[in-house]
Amino acid sequence: MGQRFGTNTIDLEALREFCEHEGKKVIITMMLAFVAMATAAQKKVSWKPFLKAVEFSEKYFVDTIHVKVENGAVIVPVEIAGQERHLLFDTGAEHGFWAGNQENWMKPLSIDSVKASDINGKKEKIAISQIPEIKMGGLRISNYPVHVGGHLGNYICGLFDGLIGFDLVSKGLSIKLDTKDSLLILTDRKGFFDEETKGQPTVKYWLASESYPLVNVDFPFGSANMSFDTGAIGHGIELSQQALTYWLKKGKKKQSAIEAVTVLKDTTFNASFGIFGFDADTLIENILHLPSVQMSSLTIKDAYASTANKVKHIGSALLKHASLIIDGPKKHYVFLPHDGTSSITLNDKDAHSQNFVPSDSTGMLRAVIRKGSAAYEKGIRTGDYLIEVEGIPIDDLCTFTAIRSRKKPGEETHFVFRSPDGTEKRVVIARTE
């Protein structure tokens, strides 16, 4: 018995058996992973001709837009074809993406002719279209290319309609994501943010391909080139087991450094939501407690990194604690920590320690709980059904997401779970991210 997400079928009976296996420690990481989503086709097909067609309605401009900030992610209200839409600003995506279907106001450039792969390595043909005009504040962006399609809309639950990729920076814009006051400031003026960025933590990025930015990060056991990905909503530092294995092979000194910061070794169930559907893998995971990580002159303190990933990135969790200026001409990320220091303290020990996965075709959710988490300590176990949240019956992922989004970090939520043997569990758990 399987449920279809896009072109991928998941054996949910096997998943249930895995989740219920006595003594098995299981973790799920539900990743809105845009870093591969809108960009994977670029290795074979150049987007440069499409990007050349993009035009701005103004020159030498500065514009300020009120935005929504969700878990550090910046969601920008825009007008397209007379309707208000919402686009995620994603530093981890090279180009634009539209989460829904082809719409009649889009100008098709390529229909089902370009192959793309998502974060799970699943490949499909995609459509490339232009959005004739995006009204973003007082600025009009013409002929913006987007990758259209996929099944991600099933998982983002209406939070946004698509995303703006890093290509707008490559076209000459500098952008401030003011996550403290929920503002986006964009300009084509060189040096506009110079006064504001003096003395602030600055991170040099470089473009690994047409417009894909990477940064260097220094860990206690080595350095890595990573994406700073504002599209990885709520995520902090994510490593891959492959990267950790590479460092472990570098000798006893590296091994000792890794062992010193490892707080959990586990067999892990990792579930990734990619553009072409849901994927599930049994992986080996290490949870690393990193007292200090250096990203150029920015210090990231008290971070917990999981290695149950296929990519290495740092997500939008940083922007819960700092605003960001992207200086396009200088290729700089400049961080403005909300507390006025030169560092960001994540303190994200419980991030992604309590998650949920659809259990069958009815959409009911079952918990996947990390051992030692707040939910685990209160008696919730992997495989328990989520029945109610705040008195509201839960029968699908988006209902739960809508209720959860109204809660602030630290705010308590009332849950009702039911174990496979029928035992009802009523618990109160604070939101951790």
Automatic annotation (TrEMBL):
Keyword list, A-Z: Hydrolase, Protease
Record's protein name: Aspartyl protease
Organism in which the protein naturally occurs: Xylanibacter ruminicola
GO molecular function, a single term: peptidase activity
Gene Ontology biological process terms in this record: proteolysis
